[in-house]
Amino acid sequence: MDLIDRYLAAVRRHLPRQQQDDIIQELSDSLRSEAEERAGEIGHALSDAEQSELVKKHGHPWLMASRYAVQQYLIGPSLFPYYKQTLVLVLFWVVLPVTLMTFLISGISNGISARTIGHVISAIWNGTIYSIGIVTSVFYALEQQRVRITTLDNWDPGTLPDYREGRAIPRSESVAALVFSLAFLMWWTGLVRVPDLSAVAGLNAPVTLVAGPIWDTIYLPVLVLVIVQMAISVVDIVRPWRTIMVSAIDIGINALNAILLIWVVQQRPQFFGVSGDPAQADNLIRLARFINGGLTWGFVVVAAVILLDILYEIWQITHPRGVAIKSVAV
């Protein structure tokens, strides 16, 4: 038995039983013809090495047999777009936001440590693996049952956005903004407690932060602004194509945020008073100065960032990057 016969025998083992004879006969004729043509070119029968070279270029027997097999899919072409989009939705709209929210809550409540970061990485990994497995299993079952999703069959072309009306907003950016706003809202409404600052201040006894009257003054305006900002993020997630109107509302909200921050800084308020062990009065005073000074400069920096964001949004509106559309004469 020459090398071609051995190759054909190896291919046969990987073929469906009912098709083996026909496929092997076709493949044998092709290989023999190619061998004869090659022998005619070199003027002698092919040696083992030359047969090996001829057979090798046709691929491993398993790969050769797979070319004749009926095409099979884990998830077929009709369901794959839905599968891919579902994975994106689950990973970036469920797993990632929930993990980040847990990280923020844990960080605000207990402080950020190596252990906290390790838990977050583990949660992201496990959540990703489980999510991919569950989504894949569901769509595999749908594929096996020959289910066809018809949700988008009756879509209306009239709902397509006009690129000249705005610009695309990455959903990842909108989700991140929504998660941050939600975390801030949970802290602002008191659902998440302020961490103990005793260790930071080098104190042996616990300290108590006493909120100044400025917080009562700005509580309601900040609450309304955060809720409106969250609504904008939701709109951007649902319709990731920002129109002039949405951009104008976003600029207005950011302008109000900046004005409020600047006003607060101008009041030079005592954000927090610090009470604790009288024996450590000097440390308490230093801690109070540190907190209030840090918050003041923090407000200034945030206001500057917001103003830059406003300028960037205005630049985006005045310099649209739409897709060029060429008219085609019919």
Strands side by side in the biggest sheet: 1-3
Number of structurally distinct domains: 3
Anisotropy-based shape = elongated
Helix content: 55-70%
Low-confidence stretches: 196-202, 322-330
Largest sheet: 2 strands, antiparallel
State the secondary-structure class: mainly alpha
Oligomer: single chain
- Please write the string of helix (H) and strand (E) elements: HHHHHHEHHEHEHEH
> What is the averaged pLDDT score?
78
Proportion in β-strands: under 5%
Beta strand count: 4
Number of helices: 11
N- to C-terminal distance: 65 Å
Computed Rg = 33 Å
Overview of the molecule:
There is one protein chain. The protein is mainly alpha-helical and 330 residues long. The protein has three domains: 3-66, no CATH class; 75-149; 162-330, no CATH class. It has helices at residues 3-12, 20-42, 48-56, 61-66, 80-110, 114-144, 171-188, 198-201, 214-238, 244-267, 281-318, and strands at residues 166-168, 208-211, 241-243, 272-275. The protein has a two-stranded antiparallel ribbon. A two-stranded antiparallel sheet has the order 2-4. Helix 5 runs antiparallel to helix 6 and helix 9 runs antiparallel to helix 10. It is elongated.
